[in-house]
Amino acid sequence: MKKIFILTIAIISVFSCKRKLSAADLDMELKKALTQHLYKAMNYDSSKVKYDVQEVTHFEDKTYYECQFKVRVISANHDTTGIMTARISKDFSKVTRKS
């Protein structure tokens, strides 16, 4: 009985622990979330426009990250680099662009 109790507590503690992302991993996940959002907006057709998210600066709030991205946009006729801002949920599933 004691072993079953200890095993149950061990299993619960393993699945209830949330992995803490390092700064580099967090930056990578934020870049990936924005890139997916940008390509999703154009039905994943990278023949028209390509996006290269180069840098990210973020602020962590309770339920989201407030982010500023440096993005290179490449199309058939030209390319440019600019700043995009977005709010990304903590689970990286929801991206709301501001500019």
- The stretches of 5 or more residues where confidence is low (pLDDT under 50) are none
Report on the biggest sheet: 4 strands, antiparallel
Q: In what range is the share of β-strand residues?
A: 35-45%
- Given the structure, what is the number of helices? 2
List how many beta strands DSSP finds: 4
Using the CA coordinates, give the radius of gyration: 19 Å
Query: What is the 3D shape?
Result: elongated
Instruction: Describe the strand arrangement of the main beta sheet, using strand numbers.
Output: 1-2-3-4
SSE succession = HHEEEE
**Class by SSE composition:** alpha+beta
**How far do the termini sit from each other?**
59 Å
> How many domains, as an integer?
1
Helix content: 25-40%
Mean pLDDT: 86
Q: What does this protein structure show overall?
A:
The chain has helices at residues 2-16, 23-41; strands at residues 49-60, 64-75, 79-89, 95-97. With 99 residues, the chain is α+β, with helices and mostly antiparallel strands. The protein has one domain. Strands 1-2-3-4 form a four-stranded antiparallel β-sheet, with helices on one face. The chain is elongated and about 70 Å long.
List keywords for this structure.
alpha+beta, elongated, 34% helix, 99 residues, 4-stranded antiparallel beta sheet, 38% strand, 2 helices
What's a quick, concise take on this entry?
The protein has 99 residues and is of the alpha+beta class. The chain is built from 2 helices and 4 strands. The termini are far apart.
What are the SSEs and their pairings?
Layout: H1 2-16, H2 23-41, E1 49-60, E2 64-75, E3 79-89, E4 95-97
Antiparallel strand pairs: 1-2, 2-3, 3-4
